Amino acid sequence: MTYQNTLEFATGLDEQDPLKDFQSQFLTPKHNGKDAIYLCGNSLGLQPVTAQQHINDQSTNWKELAIEGFFNGNDPWLGYHKKLTYTLAGILGAKNEEITVMNSLTVNLHLLMVSFYKPTNKRFKILMEGGAFPSDQYALASQARFHGYDPKEAIIEVFPREGEFTLRTEDIVKTINEHDDELALVLFSGINYYTGQFFDMEAITKAAHKVGVYAGFDLAHAAGNVILKLHDWDVDFATWCSYKYMNSGPGGISGVFVNEKHFGNKELHRFEGWWGHREDQRFLMPPVFEADKGAAGWQVSTSPVMLLALHRASLDIFEQAGGLGALRTKSELLTGYLEFLINEINKNKNEELFTIITPKNKQERGCQLSVVCKQNAKATFNFLTNNGVVADWREPNVIRLSPVPLYNSFKQVFEAGQILAASAGKS
Ligand SMILES: *Cc1c(COP(=O)(O)O)cnc(C)c1O
User: Fold this and answer.
1) What is the pTM assigned to this prediction?
2) CATH number for region 55-320
3) Right CATH for 7-35+324-425 from 3.90.1150.10, 3.90.1640.10, 3.30.70.640, 3.90.1580.10
4) 3-state SS record for 324-357
5) Residues 229-244: pLDDT tens digits?
6) Is 91 a residue whose pLDDT tops 90?
7) What pLDDT is stored for residue 345 in this prediction?
8) Ligand 1 centre and the CA of 45: distance in Å?
9) Measuring from each residue's beta carbon to the nearest atom of ligand 1, which residues come in under 6 Å?
C-alpha cells in the first residue's frame, strides 16, 4: 500500500474498511465535548456499548433467581464460562478444552508455574526476555525464591544487542542452547509491552523443547491483537488478561491455555480448588479432588460472573467481526499508516525527531508502535493529551500509540499524525 498524508486518503480508506461499523459498538471518552482519539487499547480497551446490558442481565438473574441462578435461567452461572471458551479458542489458536477463564493474569502466572516450574538443583533456571513487564519479573523472582533459589542466579534475561532495541530470535535460541543443562523453564511474553515486539513464539517453543524444558507465554499484549496458534506451535502453557485488546474492563477476567498433551500428566502438580473439580460431581462435594477435563481443571474458585459477563460483551463483538483474521488485516494497514505518518514528520523536519523502536516487519509486531521522542519528550506527550489524543507514556522518553482495528479509524490515525507533527519541537 502506498500511503498518502491527506485527510482525503484517510477517509477513503475508512470508506473501504469492511470493519468500519464496529467503532459504533464502543464508547469513546470525550475531550472538550468531542470523541477523543483513543490510542491506548494496549493498556485498557474501550467499553463495548453492550457491556452495561450484560451486567444488568446478570444483576437481574441474581435478583430474581438468587442461588438458583447457578442452575436456572437463560445463562446458568455454573457453565457460563464455557460460553466464552469457543471464541477464545479461536483468538488463541487452541482447542476448546485447552482454554479456561479464571482469576487475573499475574495470579494465573503463579498458578501455572506451580505446575510447570519444577526446579532441581541441577536445572533450576528460568529464561525470560530482558525488560519484561515488572509484574512478570516480580512473579518469576518470587517463584525462584519460593523454591529456595536466588533470583540473581535463577533468572536469565536475554537483552537486545548493543545499539538495538529489540531481540533477535537467533540470540534467544542461542541463549537457550547455552544454558541447555541448567534451564527448568522458558517463559516469555508474546509481545513485549515496552517495544511492541512480537516474538517468534514457535521458534522459542521449539528451542525450549529441544533442551527438554517447557515453554510458557504471557500474552497480555498479544491476545486479541495478533494471530496466535498456541496449539499448533506446541506451546505448553500461556495466560493473558482481557482488559487490554479484549476490552473486558479494568481488572477483567484472565484466561489460561494448557496444551492438551499435559492433561493426563500426573506429575504436574497444581493448587487445587473446588471449581477445578469435575463439574458433574462438584456439588456432590466429595472429599478428594478429581480434576475437571482439560484446562478447566486448573480453576480454583467460583467464577466471577460479572467479569465473565463483561468479557462476553466484548467476545461477542470479536465473533461478529469474524475472529482475528479480518481484524489483523486492518490492523496491519492501520499501524502501517501511523508508521508512515511518523516517518513523514521526520522527513518534513529533516531530522529524526521520532524513532520507532517497534520492529518494521509486520510479522514482528501487533497494533502498537513505541516511539522514542528525541526532544522534549514529556512536552510532546502533554501536547498530544491536551489535543485529545489518548496515548501512553513510558519513562524515560517513550510514547506508545496503539491504533486498534475494532474501534480506531484511519481518519483518527491521520488526525493523531497531524497533532504529533504540530507538537514536534515544542518545549
Ligand atoms: C498488563 C500486564 C500485566 C498485568 O498483570 P495483572 O495481573 O493483570 O495486573 C502483567 N504482565 C504483562 C506482560 C502485562 O502486559
Assistant:
1) 0.97
2) 3.40.640.10
3) 3.90.1150.10
4) HHHHHHHHHHHHHHHHHHHHHHHHHHCCCCEEEC
5) 999 999 999 999 999 9
6) yes
7) 96
8) 14
9) 104-106, 133, 135-136, 189, 193, 218, 220-221, 241
